Amino acid sequence: MPKNGEERVVYMHESLEKLVRSITPSNEGCLFHNKNKLLTYSYINNCYARTFKKMGIFDQVSGTHTLRYTAASMIRNLAGLDAVMAVTGHKDMRMAQHYGKLDVDSKQKEAGLLLEEVMKK
Q1: Which of 9, 40, 44, 77 is 20 to 30 A from 1, alpha carbon to alpha carbon?
Q2: φ, ψ of residue 37 in degrees (nearest 5)
Q3: Are 113 and 94 in contact (CB under 8 A)?
């Protein structure tokens, strides 16, 4: 359930769904639980922090939002801001822009190459 309290369905690729089902014994569809008791956000965040420390990247990343920012940025660069809004569930374009950082340099290069192709035709 997101912060705004509005339940929403999230698309999950078939291979990811298989992985989640293999590690989630509950039929409730909830990944973050222990013996059918939901884990708190702070507990989950603490687990991420411990993992990041073991990986030696704790100084560069922070909790679960690292995953959200990374996914949103990748999606924005591949499919645009509308896709970021769909994936993150944001209704406000400013929030979607905040999460989905645009790689301007690569987009400029991509646009230049596209224009070159059009000019050749």
Answers
A1: 77
A2: -105, 125
A3: no
Distance between CA atoms of residues 93 and 69, nearest Å: 15
Cα gap 70→99, rounded to integer Å: 8
Say which DSSP state 37 is in: E
Q: What backbone torsions phi and psi does residue 19 show, to the nearest 5 degrees?
A: -65, -45
Q: Tell me the residue ranges of DSSP E strands in the chain.
A: 33-34, 37-38
| CB of 29 closer than 8 Å to CB of 49 | no
pTM: 0.53
For 7-30, the pLDDT digits (tens) are 777 777 888 888 777 775 554 556
Handedness of CA 102, 3, 54, 31 (dihedral sign): negative
Exposed (0-12), middle (13-18) or buried (19+): which is 45, by Cβ within 10 Å? middle
Report which secondary-structure segment, H or E, holds 94.
helix 93-99
